[in-house]
Amino acid sequence: MTFLNWISVAAGIMFGIGALCAVWRIIKGPSILDRALATDVLLAIGMCVLGAEMAINRHTDTLVILLVLAIFAFVGSISIARFMAKQDAS
Q1: Nearest residue to 49 (alpha-carbon basis) of 14, 23, 76, 2
Q2: Residue 90: pLDDT over 70
Q3: In the UniProt record, which is one GO cellular component term (predicted)?
Q4: Residues 48, 14: contact at Cβ < 8 Å?
Q5: Backbone dihedral region of 23: left (phi > 0), alpha (psi from -120 to 50 degrees) or beta?
Q6: Which residues, in sequence order, are CB contacts of 72 under 8 Å at separation 6+?
Q7: Tens-place pLDDT, residues 29-70
Q8: Is the pLDDT at 24 greater than 90, yes or no?
């Protein structure tokens, strides 16, 4: 097993633990803001996984998926922030 394989396994384990923690916060989160933040973290972990996979395999085939995930994360965060701002104003 090469050094790159060891690093890939270590990164996969860390990404997996982070994703499990984010899913736990989505399920258990007491407020909608906790769930929204955990969803953003889960999307960020997914983007990091795609970026690491592209770097390890030296290709850019999934770059479009990476950009679409980034757009979804941005639009989702802005939508929830605007929704919460309107809710607080009422």
Answers
A1: 14
A2: no
A3: plasma membrane
A4: no
A5: alpha
A6: 43
A7: 899 889 999 999 999 999 999 999 999 999 999 999 999 999
A8: yes
Residue pair 48/15 in contact by the 8 Å Cβ criterion: yes
CA distance 86 to 90: 7
Architecture of domain 3-89: Orthogonal Bundle (1.10)
Mean pLDDT of the chain: 93
Q: What's the token pair of residue 80? A: 């929830």
Q: Where are the alpha helices (DSSP H) in the chain?
A: 3-28, 32-57, 63-89
What mean pLDDT do residues 81-90 have? 82
For residue 53, what are the contacts with CB-CB under 8 A and spacing of at least 6? 62
> Which of 9, 3, 11 is CA-nearest to residue 51?
11
Structure tokens at 65: 């998926």
Distance (Å, rounded) from C-alpha 38 to C-alpha 32? 10
